[in-house]
């Protein structure tokens, strides 16, 4: 069980890295099982975030990634969300996040979390209330990633 945190920048579809560390809420990689490890961004390079979609050249992959470089990301999830890879990277000074000797891994479950937004802030920051945090322009790319993979399920934050 492992993953990544993005507080560096809003997601944007591009064929190059983007994002910058913002006020201590930058990007990080982590592992929870079989051992707990945390790898914050080192600042050694600016290869923080990558989101490729519609790339047909064969050079840039379609998917979402944190750190590293093309074909050797710190964490990469293919656009199908069926598989990915994790490699050591200078961006996070991390080890491979998954266990075993293989570079790639199969994905069982993908979870996308967004920080809770106070109800009083919801209308101002998210353009209305009651639709959930993914139903706004700020998180449109997150929603589109899940929709493209057929994994988006709308859940209301108020029962």
Topology, please?
Elements: E1 2-5, E2 28-31, E3 37-40, E4 49-52, E5 63-66, E6 75-78, E7 83-85, E8 104-106, H1 119-126, H2 140-148
Antiparallel strand pairs: 1-2, 2-3, 4-5, 5-6, 6-7, 7-8
Mind explaining what this structure looks like?
The protein is of the alpha+beta class. It has 2 domains: 1-111, no CATH class; 114-159, no CATH class. It is 11% helix and 19% strand. The protein has helices at 119-126, 140-148, and strands at residues 2-5, 28-31, 37-40, 49-52, 63-66, 75-78, 83-85, 104-106. Mean pLDDT is 77; it is low at 117-130.
Largest sheet, order of strands side by side? Answer: 4-5-6-7-8
Distance between the termini: 29 Å
Please count the beta strands (DSSP E, at least 2 residues each): 8
Beta-strand percent range: 15-25%
Helix and strand sequence: EEEEEEEEHH
Q: How large, in whole angstroms, is the Cα Rg?
A: 16 Å
Helix content: 10-25%
Q: What's the average pLDDT?
A: 77
Q: Helix/strand-derived class?
A: alpha+beta
Q: What is the makeup of the main sheet?
A: 5 strands, antiparallel
Number of domains: 2
- Show unreliable segments: 117-130
What labels describe this entry?
159 residues; alpha+beta; 2 domains; three-stranded antiparallel sheet; 2 helices; 8 strands; 11% helix; globular
Question: In summary, what is this structure?
Answer:
This protein has helices spanning 119-126, 140-148, and strands at residues 2-5, 28-31, 37-40, 49-52, 63-66, 75-78, 83-85, 104-106. The chain is α+β, with helices and mostly antiparallel strands and 159 residues long.
């Amino acid at each position: 069980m492992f993953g990544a945190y993005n507080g560096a920048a809003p997601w944007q579809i591009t064929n190059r890295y983007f994002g910058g560390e913002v006020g201590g809420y930058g990007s990080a990689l982590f592992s929870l099982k079989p051992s707990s490890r945390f790898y914050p961004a080192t600042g050694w390079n600016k290869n923080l975030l990558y989101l490729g979609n519609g790339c047909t050249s064969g050079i840039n992959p379609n998917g979402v990634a944190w750190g590293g470089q093309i074909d050797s990301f710190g964490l990469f999830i293919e656009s199908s969300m069926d598989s990915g890879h994790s490699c050591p990277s200078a961006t996070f000074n991390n080890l491979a996040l998954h266990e075993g000797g293989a570079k790639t891994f199969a994905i069982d479950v993908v979870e996308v979390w967004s920080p809770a937004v106070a109800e009083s802030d919801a209308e101002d920051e998210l353009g209305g209330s009651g639709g959930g945090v993914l139903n706004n322009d700020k998180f449109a790319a997150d929603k589109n990633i899940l929709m493209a993979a057929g994994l988006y399920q709308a859940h209301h934050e108020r029962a």
